[in-house]
Amino acid sequence: MIFKNIRLKNIRSYKETEIKFPEGAVLLAGDVGSGKTTVLLAIEYALFGLQPGQRGSSLLSNSEEYGEVSLEIDIDGIKVVIDRGLKRNAKSINQDFAAITINDIRFESSVTEVKQKIIELLNYPMDFVRKNNLVYRYTVYTPQEEMKQIIIEDTEVRLDVLRHVFGVDKYKRIQDNAQRIIMWIREESRTLQIESALLDVKRNELDSNLKFIKILESKILVKEEEIKQSKNAREIQQKEVDSLIQLVTEKENFKKEIEKSAIMANNKQEQISRILKDIKEIDESIGNTKIQPEYTKLSTILEQISKTKKTIELLDKEYLDLNSKNHSLDILKNQELSKKSRVFQMNFCPTCLQDVPEVHKHNIMNATESSIKEIEKNKMALASEITRIETELKKQKEDLKNLEHERITIEIQNVKQENIDKYIKKKEELLKNKESIEKDLVLINEHIDSLKKHSLEYTKFENLLKIKKEELSKILESEQKKEIEFAEIRKETELINKEINKLEKEIYIGERSRQKLISMLDIENWLSNNFSNLIKFTEKNILIALRKEFTKIFNKWFSVLTTDSFEVYLDENFSPVIVHNEFELDYQFLSGGERTAVALAYRLALNQLINSILSKIKTQDVIILDEPTEGFSEQQLDKVRDMLQEMHLKQLLIVSHESKMEGFVDHVIRFRKVNGVSTVVVENDKV
Fold first, then answer.
1. Once rounded to an integer, what is the mean pLDDT over residues 185-206?
2. Do the beta carbons of residue 42 and residue 681 sit within 8 Å?
3. pLDDT digits (tens, 9 = 90+) for 50-76
4. CA 616 to chain CA mean position, Å
5. Which residues contact 687 (CB under 8 A, 6 or more apart)?
6. How many CB atoms lie within 10 A of CB 52?
7. Domains in the chain: how many in total?
8. Span 350-377, average pLDDT
9. Cα-flanking dihedrals φ and ψ of residue 636, to 5°?
10. Whose CA is closest to 562, among 574, 576, 548, 572?
11. Is residue 301 part of a domain?
12. How far apart are CA 324 and CA 330, in angstroms?
């Protein structure tokens, strides 16, 4: 990987600046606080985003609401551009967006996904996605003070960090996980031991239940036989009761038949009473009267009535005709009178429109007078005839009325005689019916007497039925009691069987638990005594090999950076040990330059060792040194030239305010801060 350029907008003291990074050794020069370290922090932010514990306020300018970093890098000829933004909210500063462009194809995604993509491109281990990027810190960029802090750090903390960086922490994780498994096995074993301890108790309980179930099964057989015998006795008794019920039912039938026959006898007696009553009424109605019917006289009167009605009809018709003629004459008379009046008043003819002579008027009037006299003569003749007919009609109607009265009188006499004949016939029928009913009544009474006699014979079966029913009730009660006892035994058997099934399952589970306990105890023993020791032995040998190689590289770089003759090595905790003239020197009592040399040598050795272990990572050709010569003497500064020549890197970024360093590098980028704003004043200026 090679850094190509970086663009900063509102990042710390930068407003908007773009910086290009050439290949080779590049010095970032400038006064303290001019903005050199900001560039290094921005590079790390562009690659990995805000680190755990890092705040956005450490990057975003205090006076700005939004900031942006864009970093272009080259990875094996692939152009990669990373863009990240920061945004100020009401309470905090958060990462606003993240995007990555690979060969001009842009992907905008979440902060974590972009970081994951970069780690894939750099070929870093993926377990660093959600952690601090220690591989980057210890191979590319580590602030000098942070490296010194690692050296004086607590040994366990330093070892944990180095284990993680070297990838050896997996052995510690394996040990921790193995210990967790052992603790889990022990917890599970306690439960399994309890289950196993109860196994013998449950087996004894199972044996007791099996013996008890056999006793219950024998009781069931006995009860079944008792119930069978009871049912047989009940069925025999029931048959006897049914027979007696049938006999008693016969008596009831006799009783019902007697009641039915008594009702019939009463009905017959009532019929006789009604017949006698009807005969009495007939006798009262007939009495001693004897009427002779007049059928011949009635026939004569009916003929006279018919003739009289015909005569009346003819007279009515003639009367109507005469009235009609009289009315017609009245109309004709009125017409003549009207004509007479019109002619008398007429002065000229309405037809020919000529004057009418008086003579002509008198002629017409004379003719009209003659016609009126003739009409009145005819009317008088008609009036005389109408009076005659009216008199005749009145006489005929009076005769008709008398004839009708006589007809009705004769018909009433005839009807009375017919009714008397009917009463006589009805009386004869009633007397015959009475005689028949009296015979039936005698037979019914005889039948009733016979039924009473038979019913008396069946009375003895009622008492016997009562005794048999009581005996049947006792048998049923005994049978029900036996069935209840049988059901209780069956229920108890069912419960015991369920308990047996439960115990068998629990014993099966207990046996499996005991087998599982044995297996788990074997696993625990193997993990505790074999596996853990093997992991510790493996980790120890790997750390010994790493420490040996680390010591070799550390000794090499330390000898390059110092002028005095020192013997250095790393102890088992990877702490640097410095020996001078056979005396071990404490790190705290070294000079500032010597401490810087120890930290720088440790850093370079760590870088070289990690690159050799993680041989496929893409950051092996670049390194950033932040104030690597703090406290160095002139002689040590001269040693830095040798160190740079030994490194053989494609790109080396050095942050330093030592002017002598400008002679050791290929390029110089100068920084200056004016009125709180950082700018790049000279790029690629080789002194």
1. 77
2. no
3. 877 778 888 999 888 999 999 999 999
4. 55
5. 662, 663, 668
6. 7
7. 1
8. 74
9. -70, -35
10. 576
11. yes
12. 10
588 pLDDT above the threshold of 70: yes
CB 206 within 8 A of CB 507: yes
- Tell me what the mean pLDDT of segment 481-499 comes to: 87
Edge-to-edge strand ranges of the sheet holding 141-143 = 141-143, 622-626, 651-655, 24-29, 667-674, 677-682
CA distance 198 to 613: 55
Which tokens belong to 579? 């020996």
Which range has the worst mean pLDDT, 4-13, 246-255, 665-674? 246-255
For residue 144, name the pLDDT band (cuts at 50, 70, 90): low
Is 651 a domain residue?
no
Instruction: Give the pLDDT confidence score for residue 687 in this predicted structure.
Output: 44
Nearest to 123 by CA among 131, 135, 112, 111: 135
For residue 287, the model assigns a pLDDT of 65
Q: Is residue 576 part of a domain?
A: no
CA 78 from centroid of its chain's CA atoms: 54
Domain that holds residue 411: 289-457
pLDDT (mean) for 366-370: 80
Confidence of residue 362 (pLDDT cuts 50, 70, 90): confident
The encoded tokens of residue 618 equal: 């893409």
What does the DSSP assignment read for 95-140? EEEEEEEETTEEEEE-HHHHHHHHHHHHT--GGGTTS--HHHHHHT
d(CA 554, CA 559): 9
Q: How far is CA 169 from CA 52, 128, 131, 166, in A?
A: 20, 13, 14, 8
Structure tokens at 504: 């068998």
- Tracing tokens 């193997």 back to the chain, one arrives at 526
Q: For the domain that residue 341 is a member of, what is the CATH number?
A: 1.10.287.510
**Is the distance from CB of 625 to CB of 8 less than 8 angstroms?**
no
Inside any domain, residue 74: no
